Amino acid sequence: MTQMDSLWFSNPTQAYRGPAGSRAAGADRRPLSARSIIQHQAMFEHFRRHLLARGTTIASFGTADVDAFWQTPNGRTYSQATRMRYVKLLDRLAAHKASAVRCVSTQRSCSSAPVSQSRCLRGM
């Protein structure tokens, strides 16, 4: 496991603000503007706090946590565009989580699957 992978487990906010957060790209694949990066970091923090309130973490969240996120008072009011931003953020998080878990558990099978966009959009 790399130092960055371990940072995702020990301090996900720091990890997201590092290279992973700054490499994010918009729909046109150009790097996000400074304002967009701040917005994405705020969204990440909002989701992370939701997970903490549910007693879970970035390293262990699953589809039930995402479903519960959509049902929060804020989540129910999100526009379609905001939900899509969250879906993209969650998809990146799930993909990163899956790759980190594969690195850690090369000797055993991994039951953690990425949260797909279609699963995240359910109930919209």
Q: Main sheet, how many strands, which sense, barrel?
A: none
Radius of gyration, CA atoms, in whole angstroms? 14 Å
Average pLDDT reading: 75
Estimate the global geometry from the Cα principal axes: globular
Estimated structural class: mainly alpha
Work out the helix count: 7
Q: Which oligomeric state applies?
A: single chain
Q: Helix fraction?
A: 55-70%
Distance between the termini: 36 Å
Strand content: under 5%
H/E element sequence: HHHHHHH
Count of all domains: 1
| Number of β-strand runs | 0
Q: Which stretches are low in confidence, meaning pLDDT under 50 for 5 or more residues running?
A: 104-124
Could you explain the architecture of this structure?
The chain is mainly α and about 120 residues long. The chain has one domain (about 5-120). Helix content is about 65%, strand content about 0%. It has helices at about 5-10, 10-20, 35-55, 65-70, 75, 80-105, 115-120. Helix 1 packs across helix 2 (about 10-20) and helix 2 (about 10-20) packs antiparallel against helix 3. The longest helix is centred in the C-terminal third of the chain and has 25 residues, at about 80-105. The radius of gyration is 14 Å and the shape is globular.
